[in-house]
C-alpha cells in the first residue's frame, strides 16, 4: 500500500489572492476526511518543487514540506493517481493523508482528546479567600 501522512506548513503566511485569505483559518475549518487537492507549482519563484495544498473550499492552506514535495510532486506530474484527505491539525502544521493508486486513503484513528480535570485549574481554598 502506497499511503502516507504528510505535514502541511506555511499556515501563517497570507495567500496572494485579492482577499489575502488566511491559511490557518481555512485549515481550522477543514474536517478530518475532507478531500484536499495537491497542486505542484513548477513556476513557484521560491521552490520549483513546491506542492500547494488546497482545502475543500478551494482556499490554499499551505504547502507540503520541502523534504517531501519533490518526490510527491514528481509522482503527481508523472500522472500517478493520488487521493488526499485532510487528517488534522497539530502544532504549527496541518496534516494530510495521501494514497497513490486512485483509492481513498484510510485515516488513522483520531487520538483521544485529554480531558482537563477541574481540580487542575481550581483555585486553592484558603482563609484569605474566605472559604
TrEMBL record:
This is HIRAN domain-containing protein. GO terms for molecular function: hydrolase activity, acting on acid anhydrides, in phosphorus-containing anhydrides; nucleic acid binding; zinc ion binding. InterPro entries: HIRAN. Residues 23-81 form the HIRAN domain. Signal peptide: none annotated. Keywords: Hydrolase, Metal-binding. It comes from Sphingomonas gellani.
Amino acid at each position: 500500500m502506497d499511503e502516507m501522512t504528510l505535514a502541511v506548513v506555511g499556515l501563517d503566511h497570507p495567500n496572494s489572492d485579492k482577499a489575502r485569505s488566511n491559511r490557518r483559518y481555512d485549515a481550522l475549518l477543514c474536517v478530518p476526511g475532507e478531500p484536499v487537492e495537491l497542486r505542484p507549482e513548477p513556476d513557484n519563484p521560491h521552490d520549483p518543487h513546491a506542492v500547494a495544498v488546497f482545502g475543500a473550499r478551494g482556499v490554499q492552506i499551505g504547502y507540503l514540506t520541502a523534504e517531501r514535495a519533490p518526490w510527491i510532486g514528481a509522482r503527481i506530474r508523472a500522472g500517478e493517481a493520488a487521493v488526499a484527505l485532510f487528517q488534522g491539525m497539530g502544532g504549527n502544521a496541518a496534516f494530510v493523508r495521501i494514497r497513490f493508486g486512485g483509492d481513498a486513503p484510510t485515516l488513522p484513528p483520531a487520538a483521544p482528546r485529554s480531558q482537563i480535570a477541574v481540580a487542575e485549574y481550581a483555585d486553592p481554598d484558603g482563609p484569605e479567600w474566605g472559604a
